[in-house]
Design a protein that fits this description.
By secondary structure, the protein is mainly alpha-helical. 40% of the residues lie in helices and 9% in strands. The longest helix is centred in the middle third of the chain and has 18 residues. Bound molecules: zinc ion.
């Protein structure tokens, strides 16, 4: 009698497990949709976006422990208008909740800091 071991497919960004490649494909399609501009999201002046990026850098810099690079995971929530969050992080949004209106981005791996630095125009 042979037993079958279910093969799990894992998203390389969020580590969510799926029972099939189809599940992962659906997940990736949703992620792509989150990063596609919605007509209800206002476009903002570049100066406002740049100013808010510096505020985000300040919040990150002052809310993470000094040795945060050695820790595995850090979570930071920043309340802001949807249009502002979208202007900064579109292309990197990995989760969106219609119910709460919360967006989530996840930066991991050896390029995480470089990616965030590029998005936020900061070397901090
Ligand atoms: Zn994922």
């Amino acid at each position: 009698m042979a037993t079958t071991v279910p093969i799990l497919v894992i998203c390389s960004i969020c580590d969510e497990e799926f029972k099939s490649k189809r599940g992962l494909s659906y997940h990736n399609a949703m992620v792509k949709k989150f990063n596609t501009h919605q007509s209800n999201i206002d476009k903002l002046p570049k100066a406002i976006i740049t100013k808010f990026k510096s505020i985000v850098v300040f919040i990150i810099y002052h809310n993470l422990p000094i040795n945060f690079k050695s820790m595995e995971k850090q979570t930071l929530s920043i309340p802001c208008p949807e249009s502002l969050f979208y202007a900064i992080f579109s292309g990197h949004i990995h989760h969106y909740s219609k119910r709460t209106g919360a967006y989530k981005c996840k930066f991991c791996g050896i390029l995480a800091y470089q990616t965030l630095a590029k998005i936020l125009n900061s070397e901090k």
